[in-house]
Amino acid sequence: MTPEQAETAKMIIDAVNLEDVTLNDIEPNEPIFNDGLGLDSIDALEISLEIQKRYGIKIKSGDKNISQVFASIASLSEFIEANK
Fold it and tell me: For 29, how many CA atoms within 13 A lie in the half-sphere containing its CB?
């Protein structure tokens, strides 16, 4: 896991209060939702709000690439880095 991916993973752990999950439990290319970390659409909203608060990046639910952005920690981290 790159430092950027670790930062993104830690942000998600904090934003949605994943109490029993550590950075070592997360694979950067595993899905964030459903089978991966098991997060849902409410968690996606919390993560989006945290990204906006920390980095000033707005992610709108109607964005055509939203499913690709939220596909994994790796893709979300890449999106954040590209839009900082």
Answer: 0
